[in-house]
Protein backbone atom coordinates (compact mmCIF):
# COMPACT_ATOMS: atom_id res chain seq x y z
CA UNK A 1 0.00 0.00 0.00
CA UNK A 2 1.18 3.55 -0.61
CA UNK A 3 1.36 6.71 1.39
CA UNK A 4 1.11 9.73 -0.92
CA UNK A 5 1.92 13.35 -0.25
CA UNK A 6 1.73 16.24 -2.68
CA UNK A 7 3.00 19.71 -1.82
CA UNK A 8 2.97 23.06 -3.59
CA UNK A 9 5.68 25.58 -2.77
CA UNK A 10 7.44 28.55 -4.26
CA UNK A 11 10.99 28.06 -5.42
CA UNK A 12 11.79 31.45 -3.83
CA UNK A 13 10.16 33.09 -0.79
CA UNK A 14 8.56 35.66 -3.10
CA UNK A 15 7.07 35.11 -6.55
CA UNK A 16 9.18 36.39 -9.38
CA UNK A 17 7.26 39.20 -11.06
CA UNK A 18 7.92 41.00 -14.33
CA UNK A 19 5.75 44.05 -14.91
CA UNK A 20 5.15 45.34 -18.40
CA UNK A 21 3.00 48.28 -19.33
CA UNK A 22 1.28 47.93 -22.69
CA UNK A 23 -1.53 49.70 -24.47
CA UNK A 24 -1.73 47.88 -27.83
CA UNK A 25 -5.47 48.19 -28.30
CA UNK A 26 -5.81 51.90 -27.63
CA UNK A 27 -5.81 53.27 -31.16
CA UNK A 28 -8.80 55.55 -30.55
CA UNK A 29 -7.79 57.14 -27.25
CA UNK A 30 -7.04 60.58 -28.65
CA UNK A 31 -9.34 63.55 -28.93
CA UNK A 32 -9.90 65.45 -32.12
CA UNK A 33 -9.08 69.14 -32.47
CA UNK A 34 -11.70 71.37 -30.92
CA UNK A 35 -13.29 68.72 -28.72
CA UNK A 36 -13.79 69.78 -25.08
CA UNK A 37 -15.58 68.69 -21.93
CA UNK A 38 -18.59 70.67 -23.13
CA UNK A 39 -19.10 68.10 -25.87
CA UNK A 40 -20.75 65.97 -23.12
CA UNK A 41 -19.95 62.67 -21.50
CA UNK A 42 -21.15 60.44 -24.37
CA UNK A 43 -18.10 61.54 -26.34
CA UNK A 44 -15.85 60.62 -23.43
CA UNK A 45 -17.51 57.20 -23.18
CA UNK A 46 -17.02 56.65 -26.90
CA UNK A 47 -13.34 57.55 -26.67
CA UNK A 48 -12.76 55.17 -23.76
CA UNK A 49 -14.62 52.35 -25.54
CA UNK A 50 -12.15 52.67 -28.40
CA UNK A 51 -9.32 51.82 -26.02
CA UNK A 52 -10.48 48.18 -26.22
CA UNK A 53 -8.33 45.83 -24.12
CA UNK A 54 -5.57 47.35 -21.99
CA UNK A 55 -2.94 44.83 -20.88
CA UNK A 56 -1.44 46.18 -17.69
CA UNK A 57 0.76 43.54 -16.09
CA UNK A 58 2.65 40.39 -16.86
CA UNK A 59 3.63 38.03 -14.06
CA UNK A 60 6.11 35.21 -14.55
CA UNK A 61 5.65 32.77 -11.71
CA UNK A 62 7.85 29.82 -10.83
CA UNK A 63 6.20 27.20 -8.69
CA UNK A 64 7.64 23.94 -7.36
CA UNK A 65 5.41 20.91 -6.96
CA UNK A 66 6.78 18.15 -4.74
CA UNK A 67 5.47 14.63 -4.48
CA UNK A 68 6.50 11.99 -1.94
CA UNK A 69 5.11 8.49 -1.64
CA UNK A 70 6.34 5.56 0.44
CA UNK A 71 5.46 1.92 -0.13
CA UNK A 72 4.12 0.51 3.13
CA UNK A 73 2.76 -2.75 4.43
CA UNK A 74 -0.26 -2.44 6.69
CA UNK A 75 -2.13 -5.11 8.59
CA UNK A 76 -3.58 -6.34 11.85
CA UNK A 77 -1.92 -8.83 14.19
CA UNK A 78 -3.61 -10.09 17.34
CA UNK A 79 -5.91 -7.09 17.33
CA UNK A 80 -3.13 -4.56 16.82
CA UNK A 81 -2.89 -2.58 13.62
CA UNK A 82 0.55 -1.98 12.18
CA UNK A 83 2.13 -0.10 9.30
CA UNK A 84 5.67 -0.83 8.15
CA UNK A 85 7.62 1.16 5.58
CA UNK A 86 9.12 -1.19 3.05
CA UNK A 87 12.86 -0.62 2.59
CA UNK A 88 13.76 0.78 -0.83
CA UNK A 89 10.08 1.59 -1.39
CA UNK A 90 9.95 5.37 -1.61
CA UNK A 91 9.65 7.80 -4.51
CA UNK A 92 10.21 11.55 -4.39
CA UNK A 93 10.10 14.25 -7.02
CA UNK A 94 10.35 18.07 -7.19
CA UNK A 95 8.94 19.64 -10.35
CA UNK A 96 9.57 23.34 -11.16
CA UNK A 97 6.72 24.84 -13.19
CA UNK A 98 7.00 28.17 -15.02
CA UNK A 99 3.80 30.09 -15.69
CA UNK A 100 2.91 33.39 -17.32
CA UNK A 101 -0.06 35.50 -16.19
CA UNK A 102 -1.36 38.62 -17.93
CA UNK A 103 -3.69 41.13 -16.34
CA UNK A 104 -5.86 43.51 -18.36
CA UNK A 105 -8.86 45.83 -18.32
CA UNK A 106 -11.36 45.41 -21.15
CA UNK A 107 -13.11 48.65 -22.12
CA UNK A 108 -15.24 47.02 -24.81
CA UNK A 109 -18.42 47.16 -22.70
CA UNK A 110 -17.62 50.48 -21.04
CA UNK A 111 -20.73 52.69 -21.06
CA UNK A 112 -22.37 55.68 -19.37
CA UNK A 113 -23.04 53.62 -16.23
CA UNK A 114 -19.29 53.68 -15.63
CA UNK A 115 -19.24 57.49 -15.44
CA UNK A 116 -20.66 59.64 -12.64
CA UNK A 117 -20.56 63.41 -12.67
CA UNK A 118 -21.73 66.14 -10.36
CA UNK A 119 -21.04 69.86 -10.40
CA UNK A 120 -17.35 69.62 -9.57
CA UNK A 121 -16.36 65.99 -9.74
CA UNK A 122 -16.04 63.30 -12.40
CA UNK A 123 -15.78 59.65 -11.35
CA UNK A 124 -14.81 56.94 -13.85
CA UNK A 125 -15.55 53.41 -12.66
CA UNK A 126 -13.27 50.93 -14.40
CA UNK A 127 -14.44 47.53 -15.64
CA UNK A 128 -13.24 44.69 -13.42
CA UNK A 129 -9.63 43.69 -14.13
CA UNK A 130 -9.25 40.25 -15.64
CA UNK A 131 -6.42 37.73 -15.75
CA UNK A 132 -5.27 35.20 -18.32
CA UNK A 133 -3.01 32.25 -17.56
CA UNK A 134 -1.29 32.19 -20.94
CA UNK A 135 1.30 29.44 -20.52
CA UNK A 136 2.68 26.80 -18.18
CA UNK A 137 5.59 24.45 -18.68
CA UNK A 138 7.67 22.04 -16.65
CA UNK A 139 11.34 22.96 -16.40
CA UNK A 140 12.47 19.43 -17.22
CA UNK A 141 16.15 20.25 -16.82
CA UNK A 142 15.57 21.16 -13.17
CA UNK A 143 13.32 18.25 -12.18
CA UNK A 144 14.81 16.33 -9.25
CA UNK A 145 13.60 12.84 -8.44
CA UNK A 146 14.54 9.85 -6.33
CA UNK A 147 13.06 6.47 -7.15
CA UNK A 148 13.85 3.45 -5.01
CA UNK A 149 15.20 0.30 -6.59
CA UNK A 150 11.93 -1.61 -6.52
CA UNK A 151 9.66 1.24 -7.60
CA UNK A 152 8.73 2.31 -11.12
CA UNK A 153 9.72 5.75 -12.39
CA UNK A 154 7.23 8.60 -12.62
CA UNK A 155 5.20 8.36 -15.81
CA UNK A 156 4.39 11.15 -18.26
CA UNK A 157 0.78 10.89 -17.13
CA UNK A 158 1.80 11.51 -13.51
CA UNK A 159 3.97 14.47 -14.51
CA UNK A 160 1.05 15.96 -16.46
CA UNK A 161 -1.20 15.52 -13.45
CA UNK A 162 1.32 17.26 -11.17
CA UNK A 163 1.57 20.11 -13.69
CA UNK A 164 -2.22 20.44 -13.64
CA UNK A 165 -2.24 20.60 -9.85
CA UNK A 166 0.55 23.18 -9.91
CA UNK A 167 -1.40 25.25 -12.42
CA UNK A 168 -4.48 25.14 -10.20
CA UNK A 169 -2.37 26.20 -7.22
CA UNK A 170 -1.02 29.20 -9.17
CA UNK A 171 -4.55 30.23 -10.14
CA UNK A 172 -5.58 30.16 -6.48
CA UNK A 173 -2.79 32.63 -5.63
CA UNK A 174 -3.79 35.20 -8.27
CA UNK A 175 -6.02 37.31 -5.96
CA UNK A 176 -2.97 37.83 -3.71
CA UNK A 177 -0.74 39.29 -6.45
CA UNK A 178 -2.14 42.83 -6.50
CA UNK A 179 -3.03 42.73 -10.19
CA UNK A 180 -6.05 44.98 -9.60
CA UNK A 181 -3.81 47.75 -8.20
CA UNK A 182 -1.51 47.64 -11.21
CA UNK A 183 -4.53 47.58 -13.54
CA UNK A 184 -5.86 50.76 -11.91
CA UNK A 185 -2.45 52.48 -12.13
CA UNK A 186 -2.13 51.63 -15.82
CA UNK A 187 -5.67 52.84 -16.52
CA UNK A 188 -4.95 56.16 -14.81
CA UNK A 189 -1.80 56.56 -16.93
CA UNK A 190 -3.93 55.96 -20.02
CA UNK A 191 -7.05 57.97 -19.20
CA UNK A 192 -5.65 61.11 -17.59
CA UNK A 193 -3.96 62.40 -20.78
CA UNK A 194 -7.16 61.68 -22.68
CA UNK A 195 -9.21 63.64 -20.15
CA UNK A 196 -6.76 66.53 -20.30
CA UNK A 197 -6.96 66.62 -24.09
CA UNK A 198 -10.75 66.78 -23.87
CA UNK A 199 -10.63 69.68 -21.46
CA UNK A 200 -11.49 67.97 -18.17
CA UNK A 201 -9.91 69.23 -14.96
CA UNK A 202 -8.00 66.11 -13.89
CA UNK A 203 -7.66 67.43 -10.34
CA UNK A 204 -11.37 66.75 -9.99
CA UNK A 205 -11.32 63.28 -11.60
CA UNK A 206 -11.48 60.06 -9.58
CA UNK A 207 -10.76 56.69 -11.24
CA UNK A 208 -11.78 53.62 -9.29
CA UNK A 209 -13.28 50.14 -9.44
CA UNK A 210 -16.84 49.38 -8.42
CA UNK A 211 -17.32 49.68 -4.68
CA UNK A 212 -18.04 45.99 -4.09
CA UNK A 213 -15.09 44.79 -6.18
CA UNK A 214 -12.60 42.47 -4.49
CA UNK A 215 -9.59 40.60 -5.94
CA UNK A 216 -11.62 37.40 -5.62
CA UNK A 217 -14.11 38.93 -8.07
CA UNK A 218 -11.59 38.89 -10.92
CA UNK A 219 -12.37 36.73 -13.89
CA UNK A 220 -9.52 34.29 -14.51
CA UNK A 221 -9.18 32.51 -17.84
CA UNK A 222 -6.90 29.49 -18.18
CA UNK A 223 -5.73 29.59 -21.80
CA UNK A 224 -3.56 26.52 -21.26
CA UNK A 225 -6.55 24.21 -21.07
CA UNK A 226 -7.01 21.94 -24.12
CA UNK A 227 -9.46 23.35 -26.60
CA UNK A 228 -8.90 27.04 -25.72
Structure write-up:
The two termini are 38 Å apart. The protein contains three helices and nine strands. Strand 2 (53-77) and strand 3 (80-106) form a beta hairpin. The protein is an alpha+beta fold and 228 residues long. The strands form two sheets. Strands 1, 2, 3, 6, 7 and 9 form a six-stranded mixed sheet that branches. It has helices at residues 41-49, 156-173, 179-197, and strands spanning 2-10, 53-77, 80-106, 115-118, 121-126, 130-138, 144-147, 205-209, 219-222. The radius of gyration is 26 Å and the shape is elongated.
- Tally of contiguous helical segments: 3
Let me know the largest β-sheet.
6 strands, mixed
Structural shape:
elongated
Structural class: alpha+beta
Short characterization:
With 228 residues, the protein is an alpha+beta fold. It has helices at residues 41-49, 156-173, 179-197; strands at residues 2-10, 53-77, 80-106, 115-118, 121-126, 130-138, 144-147, 205-209, 219-222.
Features:
single chain, 228 residues, alpha+beta, elongated
Secondary-structure topology with pairs:
Elements: E1 2-10, H1 41-49, E2 53-77, E3 80-106, E4 115-118, E5 121-126, E6 130-138, E7 144-147, H2 156-173, H3 179-197, E8 205-209, E9 219-222
Parallel strand pairs: 5-8, 6-9
Antiparallel strand pairs: 1-2, 2-3, 3-6, 3-7, 4-5
